[in-house]
């Protein structure tokens, strides 16, 4: 199963992606996480990406496409994957389709998680991520039991550098201008499913898995 999670910053792609990994046993491939890891390592790729990320802009396609090609060629992606934060513009979506056509493994679904702007901003401003195990919390909607400490592993919770008001506004602007056109791109050939992204995380997850399971049973019936 090859799935794209589409949605604005803060819509819940990372949160739902983690749950999908547990349910379907395929990896979540987050370009944001891969880029943050490269920045943390101080690699050449990370040094190139950092300025764009700090400014809330997209990292150049050449960098991201090379990185994704390498990640999807790894053995754990052979049975499928959940793409989180990729593709981000039409050029990336077309490149992904070309890549998948070459391997004879087309994309199955693009799931759009729909959330209003006010909720997106509040979620991003309140987000906390464990520096050790990457579990995500939220000051407002899902606080940890002990302030600043991860419930899962006891690690330290950190606030992402790009989750400040000015950068959030830039990221939302980039989403509107560059990523939103992908809704039409995937709706055009019936690969898009829209999920209401407001409400309980488990209820949203149930809606997502209903769409995925329906697609899986169509494939089994063929
Ligand atoms: P990236 O890391 O992809 O960030 P993003 O798209 O801005 O998405 P987020 O991770 O902010 O949000 P999310 O949808 O995963 O929400 P989450 O589940 O955490 O990208 C960062 C940067 O990297 C980009 O700006 C760009 O520079 C670069 N980049 C990445 N990919 C690129 C690409 N393909 N091309 C070029 N550049 C690229 O949830 C958010 C919060 O809400 C959490 O606290 C969570 O607990 C809470 N929450 C989740 N669901 C709910 C719910 N139902 N109710 C209440 N709260 C909820």
TrEMBL record:
Monomer. This is Adenylate kinase. CDD domains: ADK (cd01428). It comes from Acidihalobacter yilgarnensis. Consists of three domains, a large central CORE domain and two small peripheral domains, NMPbind and LID, which undergo movements during catalysis. The LID domain closes over the site of phosphoryl transfer upon ATP binding. Assembling and dissambling the active center during each catalytic cycle provides an effective means to prevent ATP hydrolysis. Some bacteria have evolved a zinc-coordinating structure that stabilizes the LID domain. Its main location: cytoplasm. One of its GO terms (molecular function) is AMP kinase activity. Residues 127-162 form the Adenylate kinase active site lid domain. PANTHER family: NUCLEOTIDE KINASE.
């Amino acid at each position: 199963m090859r799935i794209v999670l589409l949605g604005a910053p803060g819509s819940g792609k990372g949160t739902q992606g983690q749950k999908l990994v547990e349910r379907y046993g395929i990896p979540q491939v987050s370009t944001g996480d891969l880029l943050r890891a490269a920045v943390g390592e101080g690699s050449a790729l990370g040094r190139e990406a950092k300025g764009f990320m700090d400014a809330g802009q997209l990292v150049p396609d050449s960098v991201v496409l090379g990185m994704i090609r390498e990640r999807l060629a790894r053995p754990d992606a052979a049975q499928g994957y959940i793409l989180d934060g990729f593709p981000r513009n039409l050029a990336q979506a077309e490149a992904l389709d070309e890549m998948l056509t070459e391997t004879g493994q087309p994309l199955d679904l693009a799931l759009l998680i729909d959330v209003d702007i006010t909720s997106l901003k509040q979620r991003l401003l309140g987000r906390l991520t464990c520096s050790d195990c990457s579990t995500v919390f939220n000051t407002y909607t899902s606080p940890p039991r002990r302030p600043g400490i991860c419930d899962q592993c006891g690690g330290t919770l950190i606030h992402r550098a790009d989750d400040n008001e000015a950068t959030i506004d830039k990221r939302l602007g980039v989403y509107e201008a560059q990523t939103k056109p992908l809704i039409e791109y995937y709706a055009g050939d019936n690969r898009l499913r829209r999920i209401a992204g407001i409400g309980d995380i488990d209820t949203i997850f149930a809606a997502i898995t209903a769409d995925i399971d329906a697609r899986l049973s169509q494939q089994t019936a063929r």
